[in-house]
Amino acid sequence: MALLTTLACNVQASEIEELRAAVDAMRADYDARIAELERRLAVAEQNASQADYSSPQPVMSAGSSARSSAFNPAIGVILQGQAWQYAGDPAEEPVPGFPYGGEAGPISEGLTSGETELIFNANVDDKFTAWLTTALAIEDGESVVEVEEAWVEATALPYGLGARFGRFFSNIGYLNEKHSHTWDFVDQPLPYQAFLGDQYLDDGAQVRWLAPTDIYMEFGGEVFQGSRYPAAGGDNSGYGAYSVFAKFGGDVGTDNSWLAGISYLDADAIDRPSGDEDDPLLFNGDSSLTVAQFVWKWAPDGNWKQKNLIVQSELFWRQEDGIYEVPGNTPASYDTDQEGWYLQAVYQPFPRWRFGGRVDGLSGDDPGTVFDGTPLADPDDDPRRYSFMVDWSNSEFSRLRLQIMKDETRADDETQWGIQYIHSIGAHGAHTF
To answer: Is the pTM of this model over 0.90?
Structure first.
């Protein structure tokens, strides 16, 4: 009997030890799992905080891209640069037959750091948000700081209304308001360069209305000082340009979305320079531009990160009526109609890699023999360009791009190619559709 009691005690002790060991093992495993989950939660929270400002996912926007943030203000930096090569001598003059102004012109040959953008944005209070973009660049060997954007937007207006005032990119066309680091190619299409000086940026005010409909419908108008190309001189006591626009969009199933629109810009010019900086052509008169746009985006099940295709096109019609001061200070009447267009497609077959093609062109009336020998002389052929690009994005914060372009805008065709880098740090708002 004593032997049985001893054996039972030993068995119970052994079971207790096994149970205690099992509990300890479970506790250790539980603690490890909790620690791993806490680590993953911390990483997810950090990534979410960064994604609020860096994600390039397309969103339908009623205007402002400024967003609330843990930063006050949110601060971001965009670093850009390229190495560009011409097969022959780089052309320095604008495209023949079309007055160039603003920031338009050929890409600089060789290694260039491009513009570095400093972005500051924050909510002012419960009714206003503010945005500031400064551009840092090297011009003629000297550092230049320029206020690119500086605007305030009302965020609490009723009935779908929105308002912005300050210095900002106009809503004319599809690409005009997009920052250069969001472009799909190194440069802007030819119509933007010829008709808007690359991008129309000016001091002014904007009012928008987002309709309460199932599809996206937005209407708006802008008034500007008129001090920048295609305007100049701030005519009409500093109200020298205005624009109106309408945009429509929606989804087709889960895979497709679209955006269409039409816009109109009217600008008055006083001594608007174009051509040679040392001996420019000066224009006095009216410039009007109409732009029609269409964009189609496709992504399987709406998952744009894995695979997507974007096809977009814009058509431009410009009419200018006024007087040019040609060399020799001879006034010459200038009344022309000009057209421009581009069509491009960008395809991402798998994450990180994109491939794109673009064709763009210009055409217009012959302004007359009085302009022979000037940059406005009628070209022999309509200008055309053909571009191909491939880019690789290690993350939403960095991109490397290779672009090859056949330029048929001048008497001699030119082949160009180059590489570009775009890197961002800090806070950065989501991009519009």
So the answer is: no
Residue 300: phi and psi, rounded to 5, are: -55, 125
Containing H/E element for 302? Answer: none
Closest of 179, 172, 181 to residue 204, by C-alpha:
172
* Pairwise CA distance, residues 271 & 232, whole Å: 7
**Burial of residue 303 (number of CB atoms within 10 Å: 0-12, 13-18, 19+):** exposed
Q: Tokens in use for 27? A: 């506790």
Burial of 90 (0-12, 13-18, 19+ CB in 10 A): middle
Backbone conformation region of residue 159, classed left if phi is above 0, alpha if psi is from -120 to 50, else beta: left
Rounded CA gap, 432 and 426, in Å? 19
Residues in CB range of 383: below 8 A, 6 or more apart? 95, 96, 97, 98, 190, 361, 362, 408, 409, 410
- Does an H or E element contain 37, and which? helix 2-54
Query: What does each of the 433 residues of the chain score in pLDDT, given as a tens digit?
Result: 544 444 445 546 667 777 777 766 666 666 656 655 655 554 444 444 333 333 333 333 334 444 444 457 889 999 999 999 988 776 666 788 888 888 887 888 888 888 889 999 999 988 999 999 998 877 777 778 889 999 999 998 999 999 999 999 999 999 999 999 999 999 999 999 999 999 999 999 999 999 999 999 999 999 999 999 999 998 899 999 999 999 999 999 999 999 999 999 999 999 998 877 777 888 999 999 999 999 999 999 888 889 999 999 999 999 999 999 876 667 889 999 999 999 999 999 999 999 999 999 999 998 888 888 888 888 888 999 999 999 999 998 999 999 999 999 887 888 999 999 999 998 766 667 7
At 3, the amino acid letter reads L
